[in-house]
């Protein structure tokens, strides 16, 4: 909390010192326009490069809510959402910077029905341009002096009556974690020392594309994205029990993890204008994933290499989703701007888990299940401009769904949810906007929680639970958005939530541990961002800062005590100081990512995982031919990750029986990137 408060105090103090800036954005009460020329100093090559530099704005991929409409992100392209749930960053990377005419920050009444539930939205407005493309090559050096590449290429062109864009990217990364570990009994006596070496690897290759054309009196757009991901590592440990850590180890242990994922998504939407500023839009979306995960653990006694224990896990999962949606919405400068719509979705997950411990099958409830959900929703939203300064927004949605689980577990559930919302926006001036509101949401169920899973390295088997219900939340919020000049912005929002049916770890009637609905909780916090020109200090300098501070209150039914919610990471802070040197194509800066901590509450364990603060620096320039060169140092002080697992018997309401403490580091990373448009 002290970090976030410090950032906010610095932002407020600097804001008081600002009296002038070099240029001015086009500022209106509900719309701030940034011309493409205002981003030229950053030598952007894609629309993403530009949106990431919009003052006081942070891209949000979309809330983890059910369906397509509720998961809207805060970026539009020509007033429309991409017909995709894989995120807007991929779509923005396909748009060359030369095709961006301007970026509009929409606030209050200017926000269209396409950005349902958002309070601040960036709308990227493009223009027709000649065919163009971009390439980017990156070489990264990990902390153990291993080098590996990243590559990306995109191309936008016209094919007959179609406007099309394509992108290919490939990544191979390595994180050389090294660590030590100490295990104590409940009385605090040291039992074991471990030395760990765990180089981790991630690889991906994706291809994506989009095409659009005018047809049938409207605009048809098609999106597709397909790719492959793999995450794998071997954790080699030496274990010292009776002997000191600098002598001969008593055991060795190898844990191997390999997860391969195939993903695919195809979406299409058609929109057309109808008389009276009405727009009709239809969206169709299909997505699917194939996951194959393998875990192997083997412990040997030393020095004779005799086997002590061995575990093997195989997990196959195939989630899929189909969505259809149609809306009628009224745009233009009307006092009332309603939106009507319906949405239908089908979700499916097939999951199969096989776990063997020392050659013997280990049965977990719901190891092999098929989960299917059919869901429908109807909704009405209205924006009512009360006068030039005040806008009232309200909406109501009703959702009905049916979930069926078959296989090792048999269960059927039906739900009906009402989801009202109400918000008020006040344009206190051309630069300042205040907003407040109330919204009820229904969270997205993770169908993998219906199926069994396990982490055999940590000895955490989790049964599937076919009786899960989605978490509901009623959120009240109030916010301020203030912008000045071409680069000045400050935004802050405070919120409070009342959550129902929160999902926590419990013991099922079968005696197995699983995730289940566990009661109510309160969550409150603050989200702030600032973009502060520092020309009064050094011409061309600016500071960006972001902070999310969250706290929660949950009455633990296992212990009867009040605690934070499970797996709630906080605080989340970051900052960047950047100096664009006047008159030359050079820039440099330093970056900061604040410390954070996540705590997991299992039935018989508390697992705390704090991460240290990280610092970095960069320098960039543009050379002849328009090639942009960037040298970046990440985690210059090396990332440090601690982990403390405290075990209890028979559960967290009992006595401490064991403590497992770990210390990990992964070194600094150096990246050199060359990129250019063509």
Helix fraction by DSSP (H/I, runs of at least 4): under 10%
Give the termini separation. Answer: 46 Å
CATH topology of the domain at 21-129: Ferric Hydroxamate Uptake Protein, Chain A, domain 1
Give Rg in angstroms: 27 Å
Anisotropy-based shape: globular
Total of helices: 3
Question: How would you briefly describe this protein structure?
Answer:
It is built from 3 helices and 37 strands. It has helices at 2-17, 47-51, 88-93, and strands at 26-27, 31-35, 75-77, 100-107, 120-126, 132-141, 147-159, 162-185, 190-215, 218-240, 251-274, 278-301, 306-330, 336-357, 360-361, 368-385, 390-407, 411-427, 432-442, 453-455, 460-462, 472-484, 488-500, 503-507, 513-517, 520-533, 541-555, 562-563, 572-580, 586-593, 596-601, 605-611, 614-623, 627-634, 640-649, 655-665, 669-677. The protein starts with a helix and ends with a strand.
Kindly describe this structure.
The structure is a single chain. The chain is 4% helix and 64% strand. The chain has 678 residues and is mostly beta strands. A hairpin with a 3-residue loop joins β17 (390-407) and β18.
Topology:
Layout: H1 2-17, E1 26-27, E2 31-35, H2 47-51, E3 75-77, H3 88-93, E4 100-107, E5 120-126, E6 132-141, E7 147-159, E8 162-185, E9 190-215, E10 218-240, E11 251-274, E12 278-301, E13 306-330, E14 336-357, E15 360-361, E16 368-385, E17 390-407, E18 411-427, E19 432-442, E20 453-455, E21 460-462, E22 472-484, E23 488-500, E24 503-507, E25 513-517, E26 520-533, E27 541-555, E28 562-563, E29 572-580, E30 586-593, E31 596-601, E32 605-611, E33 614-623, E34 627-634, E35 640-649, E36 655-665, E37 669-677
């Amino acid at each position: 909390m002290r970090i976030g408060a410090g950032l906010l105090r610095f932002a407020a103090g600097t804001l008081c010192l600002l009296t002038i800036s070099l240029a001015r954005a086009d500022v209106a009460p509900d719309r701030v326009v940034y011309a493409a020329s205002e981003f030229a100093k950053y030598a952007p090559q894609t629309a993403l490069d530009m949106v990431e530099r919009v003052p006081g704005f942070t891209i949000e991929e979309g809330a983890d809510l059910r369906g397509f409409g509720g998961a809207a992100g805060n970026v539009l392209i020509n007033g429309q959402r991409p017909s995709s749930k894989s995120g807007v960053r991929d779509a923005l990377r396909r748009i060359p910077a030369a095709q961006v005419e301007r970026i509009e920050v929409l606030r209050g009444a200017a926000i269209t029905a396409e950005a349902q539930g958002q309070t601040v939205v960036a709308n990227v407005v493009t223009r027709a341009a000649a065919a163009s493309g971009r390439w980017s090559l990156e070489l990264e050096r990990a902390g153990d002096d291993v080098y590996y590449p990243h590559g990306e290429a995109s191309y936008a062109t016209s094919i007959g009556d179609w406007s099309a864009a394509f992108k290919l990217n490939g990544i191979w990364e390595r994180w050389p974690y090294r660590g030590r570990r100490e295990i104590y009994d409940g009385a605090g006596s040291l039992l074991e020392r471990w030395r760990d070496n765990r180089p981790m690897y991630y690889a991906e290759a994706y291809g994506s594309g989009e095409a659009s054309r005018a047809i049938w009196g409207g605009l048809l757009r098609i999106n597709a994205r397909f790719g492959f991901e793999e995450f794998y590592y071997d954790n080699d440990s030496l274990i010292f029990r009776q002997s000191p850590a600098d002598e001969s180890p008593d055991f060795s242990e190898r844990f191997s993890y390999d997860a391969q994922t195939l993903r695919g998504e195809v979406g299409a939407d058609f929109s057309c204008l109808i008389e009276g500023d009405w727009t009709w839009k239809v969206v169709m979306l299909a997505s699917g994933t194939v996951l194959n995960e393998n875990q192997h653990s083997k412990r040997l006694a030393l020095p004779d290499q005799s086997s002590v224990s061995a575990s093997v896990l195989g997990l196959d999962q195939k989630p899929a989703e189909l969505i259809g949606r149609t809306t009628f919405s009224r745009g233009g400068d009307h006092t009332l701007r309603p939106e009507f719509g319906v949405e239908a979705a089908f979700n499916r997950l097939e999951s199969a888990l096989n776990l063997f411990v020392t050659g013997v099958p280990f049965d977990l409830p719901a190891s092999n299940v098929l989960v299917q959900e059919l869901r429908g929703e109807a909704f009405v939203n209205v924006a009512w401009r009360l006068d030039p300064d005040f806008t009232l927004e309200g909406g109501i949605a009703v959702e009905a769904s049916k979930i069926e689980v078959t296989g090792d577990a048999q269960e059927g559930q039906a739900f009906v949810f009402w989801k009202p919302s109400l918000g008020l926006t006040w344009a206190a001036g051309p630069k300042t906007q205040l907003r407040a509101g109330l919204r009820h949401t229904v969270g997205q169920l993770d169908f993998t929680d219906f199926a069994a899973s396990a982490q055999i390295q940590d000895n955490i088997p989790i049964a599937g639970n076919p009786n899960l219900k989605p978490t509901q939340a009623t959120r009240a919020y109030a916010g301020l958005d203030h912008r000045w000049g071409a680069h000045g912005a400050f935004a802050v929002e405070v919120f409070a939530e009342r959550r129902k049916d929160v999902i926590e770890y419990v013991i099922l009637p079968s005696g197995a541990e699983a995730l289940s609905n566990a009661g109510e909780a309160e969550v409150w916090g603050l989200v702030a961002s600032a973009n502060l020109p520092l020309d009064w200090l050094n011409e061309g300098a600016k500071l960006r800062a972001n902070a999310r501070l969250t706290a929660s209150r949950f009455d633990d039914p296992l212990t009867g005590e009040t605690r934070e919610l499970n797996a709630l990471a906080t605080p989340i802070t970051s900052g960047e100081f950047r100096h664009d040197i006047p008159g030359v194509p050079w820039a440099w800066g330093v970056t900061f990512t604040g410390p954070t901590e996540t705590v997991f509450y299992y039935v018989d364990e508390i697992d705390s995982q704090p991460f240290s603060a990280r610092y970095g620096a960069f320098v960039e320039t543009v050379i002849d031919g328009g090639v942009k060169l960037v040298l970046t140092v990440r985690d210059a002080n090396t990332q440090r990750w601690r982990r403390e697992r405290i075990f209890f018997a028979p559960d967290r309401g009992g006595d401490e029986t064991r403590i497992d403490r770990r210390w990990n580091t992964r070194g600094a990373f150096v990246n050199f990137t060359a990129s250019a448009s063509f």
